[in-house]
């Protein structure tokens, strides 16, 4: 089907070996199909012209007609710059070139009518456009056959080989002239009709050369729909396949461990959301099918408890349970919390981390093999090959976004019956993204915080206000509170980061001197033992301030710490900031989060800080994050190796289309799971082709 799309790009008229090479290297365009699916990133209305007097600084690319009245070259060599004064009668503006100055100088003629195209900026009381596209005005200007012209991404190297946006457009025209008549439909007729879709051929023609706004919209809908629909088809197929294949442990009883814990050890009532999620897990683990469930819940929503009760359920059914945390600090903390919560109950809990001694390790291995250890808590160490369980029934993976998928897979591949898997993430994921990233998992959401939490107050200060902040910190310490001060840690410049941290530590110890104040410091370069020691001092209330890098980001629980000061806030991502803030607000006291930043901030940094000040809702924050960063950079995406190479759909914007696509996929697969019906044959071909193309990007089962 549409096999001509695999033809090498060098066979296209207008593409010689040199251009073919550049297309491959710069834009990953290797075949006819790659080119055809290289869509414009926006469209320019070629019938619309602006006057200079109408310009405003927030405009994107626009067209103006006018003439050049003066040309001026300044600077030497690489510093050369060409300035042309451009006027249309309504005003004057500058056109500026920094490159190819001599060439431009020769081509620009005074008093000739030009159309210029580009993005205006406002500086020193005047508008200018840098490196505008420039064309002569002809009698046909404004009467183009195609009102909307696609603009294609190009790189410097592409432009140098005449593969400008216009150059690409010419190639698209050549290609469509050649092959449009051969394009065959790739979706079943009923799917097209039910969703008011246009055919593939019309869609591909109109996405490059729209004949009207309406057709452009239809083309874009059709192509986005198809893209998302295919992903959903393959995710849901994967889920069905897994469900039909993977036998799971049956947790049929709710036994003594679960019940006694609930009756005697639980110091508070479960929230409604915790109860609901436990029910979902219960239902899922009695079916005899292996559970793969994602548990989403904001920081502090009580996921650990749900995890623990799920593990108790497993133990009641003669299984072992394991919980895996991303850092040693967090594993240790889980170990302590869980031991405390299980106080007095006959459950054996052990801890296994990178720093567990060899001797202890050997005892652990034995206990795991003979089944006497019921709950194992640990870091990556617990998926090493030497670790063998007797009957591992449930694995909880905490703070999922820190784990690679391969590590996950290892854990459950070595058992005959795969354990149930509960993946917990404290980074709320917007719905669209979780439908795509986790479309093959079951999802539970804890959308309710335990009662009595006071919302954290968040404030933003610039570095100039440091004295005010120090004053506030002193007040809080006087009231008996403890404080985190966190510095960013970015791998590429680790040295610099440590220096930031050390400088910060010094200035803090100067402002908060001994013996009145005690300050702890924890960072990634410290030995685990020393880290642990400092963490403990802080946790026990022996120090007032904890200066740290983001090692404390995840999971640490010190209820008396009620102030989180974040330094260089602009260097943190939104989800990280939200995680950090979640370290406070765990006790009865009013908590505060103070975001320090420099005075000059980028637009995005501003938006991030504003969002943090505005809301405590992790899902709200995740939506903003997705919009700011795009799905490619979201936490979890990169690490999980989900390389959805979306050509046209946008997970931040196309929520509705995604939902429609998913509903369609579910409906079809409900009715015809193997896609064996004649009307679905076309789909089966398509889906298997896609699935074969993608390497096993996310082998979860
Ligand atoms: P998460 O892992 O979701 O960030 P935790 O499981 O660490 O959150 O829980 C945060 C705090 O809330 C813990 O101190 C825990 O004991 C407490 N907690 C959990 N569930 C409840 C509940 N239903 N009522 C009151 N407190 C709760
Ligand atoms: Mg947690």
Summarize the structure.
The chain is of the alpha/beta class and 701 residues long. A hairpin with a 2-residue loop joins strand 6 (121-123) and strand 7.
Structure, described:
The protein folds into 4 domains: 87 residues, no CATH class; 70 residues, OB fold (Dihydrolipoamide Acetyltransferase, E2P); 191 residues, P-loop containing nucleotide triphosphate hydrolases (Rossmann fold, 3-Layer(aba) Sandwich); 159 residues, P-loop containing nucleotide triphosphate hydrolases (Rossmann fold, 3-Layer(aba) Sandwich), CATH 3.40.50.300. It is 40% helix and 17% strand. The chain contains 24 helices and 22 strands. A 7-stranded mixed sheet has the order 6-7-4-3-2-5-8. The longest helix has 33 residues. It is globular and about 90 Å long. The C terminus is likely disordered. The chain binds adenosine-5'-diphosphate (ADP) and magnesium ion. Magnesium ion binds next to helix 11.
The biggest beta sheet reads: 7 strands, mixed
Return the structural class: alpha/beta
Strand content: 15-25%
CATH fold topology of the largest domain: Rossmann fold
- How far apart are the first and last residues' alpha carbons, in Å? 31 Å
Structural domain tally:
4
CATH-derived architecture of the largest domain:
3-Layer(aba) Sandwich
Strand order, sheet with most strands: 6-7-4-3-2-5-8
CATH-defined superfamily of the largest domain? P-loop containing nucleotide triphosphate hydrolases
**CATH class (first level) name of the largest domain:** Alpha Beta
**Which ligands, by name, code or SMILES, are bound?**
adenosine-5'-diphosphate, magnesium ion
Which outline best applies? globular
Mean pLDDT: 86
The stretches of 5 or more residues where confidence is low (pLDDT under 50) are 402-407, 633-643, 695-701
**Share of helical residues:** 25-40%
- Cα gyration radius (Å): 30 Å
Q: With helices defined by DSSP (H or I, 4 residues minimum), what is the helix count?
A: 24
* Number of beta-strand segments: 22
């Amino acid at each position: 089907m549409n096999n001509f799309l695999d033809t090498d790009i060098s066979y296209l008229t207008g593409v010689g070996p040199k251009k073919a090479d550049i297309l491959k290297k710069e834009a990953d365009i290797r075949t006819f199909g790659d080119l055809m699916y290289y869509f414009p990133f926006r469209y320019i209305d070629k019938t619309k012209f602006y006057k200079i007097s109408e310009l405003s600084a927030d405009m994107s690319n626009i067209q103006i007609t006018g003439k050049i009245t003066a040309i001026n070259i300044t600077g030497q060599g690489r510093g050369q710059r060409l300035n042309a004064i451009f006027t249309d009668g309504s005003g004057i503006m500058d056109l500026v070139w920094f490159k190819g100055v001599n060439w431009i100088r020769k081509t620009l003629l005074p008093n000739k009518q030009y159309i210029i195209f580009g993005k205006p900026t406002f500086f020193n009381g005047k508008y200018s456009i840098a490196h505008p596209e420039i064309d002569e005005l002809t009698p046909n200007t404004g009467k183009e056959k195609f009102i909307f012209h696609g603009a294609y991404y190009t790189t410097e190297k592409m432009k140098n080989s005449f593969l400008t946006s216009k150059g690409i457009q010419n190639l698209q025209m050549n290609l469509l002239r050649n092959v449009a008549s051969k394009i065959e439909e790739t979706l079943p007729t009923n799917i097209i009709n039910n969703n008011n879709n246009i055919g593939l051929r019309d869609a591909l023609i109109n996405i490059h050369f729209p004949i009207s706004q309406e057709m452009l919209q239809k083309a874009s809908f059709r192509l986005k729909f198809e893209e998302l629909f295919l992903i959903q088809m393959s995710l849901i197929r994967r889920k069905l396949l897994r469900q039909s294949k993977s036998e799971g442990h049956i947790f049929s009883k709710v036994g003594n461990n679960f019940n006694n814990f609930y009756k005697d050890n639980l110091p508070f009532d479960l929230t409604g959301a915790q109860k609901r999620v436990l029910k979902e897990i219960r239902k899922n683990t009695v079916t005899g099918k292996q559970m793969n469930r994602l548990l989403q819940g904001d920081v502090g929503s009580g996921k650990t408890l749900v995890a623990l009760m799920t593990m108790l359920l497993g133990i009641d059914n003669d299984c072992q349970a394991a919980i895996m945390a991303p850092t040693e600090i967090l594993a240790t903390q889980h170990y302590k919390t869980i031991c405390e919560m299980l106080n007095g109950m006959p459950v054996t809990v052990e801890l296994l981390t990178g720093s567990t001694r060899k001797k202890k390790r050997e005892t652990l291995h034995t206990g795991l093999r003979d089944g006497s250890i019921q709950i194992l808590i640990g870091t990556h160490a617990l998926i090493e090959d030497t670790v063998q369980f007797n009957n591992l029934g449930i694995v909880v993976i905490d703070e999922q976004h820190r784990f690679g998928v391969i590590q996950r897979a290892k854990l459950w591949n070595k058992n005959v019956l795969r354990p149930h898997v509960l993946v917990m993430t404290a980074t709320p994921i917007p719905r669209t993204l979780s439908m795509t990233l986790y479309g093959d998992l079951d999802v539970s959401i804890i959308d309710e915080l335990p009662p009595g939490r006071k919302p954290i107050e968040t404030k933003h200060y610039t570095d100039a206000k440091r004295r005010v902040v120090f004053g506030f910190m002193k007040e809080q310490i006087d009231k008996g509170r403890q404080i985190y001060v966190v510095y960013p840690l970015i791998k590429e410049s680790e040295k610099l980061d440590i220096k930031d941290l050390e400088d910060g530590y010094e200035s803090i110890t100067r402002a908060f001197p001994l013996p009145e104040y005690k300050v702890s410091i924890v960072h990634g370069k410290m030995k685990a033992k020393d880290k642990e020691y400092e963490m403990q001092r802080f946790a026990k209330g022996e120090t007032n301030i904890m200066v740290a890098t983001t090692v404390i980001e995840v999971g640490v629980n010190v209820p008396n710490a009620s102030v989180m000061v974040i330094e260089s806030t602009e260097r943190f991502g939104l989800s990280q900031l939200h995680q950090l803030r979640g370290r406070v607000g765990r006790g009865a006291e009013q908590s505060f989060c103070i975001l320090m930043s420099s005075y000059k901030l980028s637009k995005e940094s501003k938006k991030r800080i504003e969002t943090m000040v505005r809301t405590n809702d992790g899902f709200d924050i995740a939506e903003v994050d997705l919009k700011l960063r795009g799905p490619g950079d979201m936490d979890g995406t990169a690490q999980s190796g989900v390389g959805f190479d979306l050509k046209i759909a946008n997970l931040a914007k196309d929520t509705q289309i995604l939902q429609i696509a998913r509903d369609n996929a579910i409906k079809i697969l409900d009715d015809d799971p193997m896609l064996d019906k004649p009307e679905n044959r076309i789909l089966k071909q398509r889906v298997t082709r896609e699935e074969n193309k993608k390497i096993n990007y996310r082998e979860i089962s």
